[in-house]
Design brief:
Blueprint (H helix, E strand, L loop, with lengths): L2 H25 L7 H11 L1 H10 L9
Length: about 60
């Protein structure tokens, strides 16, 4: 496995989690009315930091069904 393969695999894994986070944000209900929009923008504009922050903080702000 060459260096390029590792970079491509890492990018694909990151992109998969990034897309998952965006889908999860827009399919979920949050306690705050603007939280969905804010989390969506945060994850979209700052992918790495936004994804980490959403996984650590944002998922806990969702309304439990």
């Amino acid at each position: 496995m060459g260096e390029n393969s590792v970079i491509i695999l890492t990018a694909l894994v990151f992109a998969t989690f990034w897309i998952w986070a965006l889908i999860d944000i827009f399919k979920s209900d949050f306690r705050e009315s603007n939280a969905r929009l804010l989390w969506g923008l945060f994850v979209f504009m700052l992918p790495l930091i936004g994804l980490l922050m959403y996984c650590l903080i944002g998922r806990k702000q969702k309304v439990k069904l």
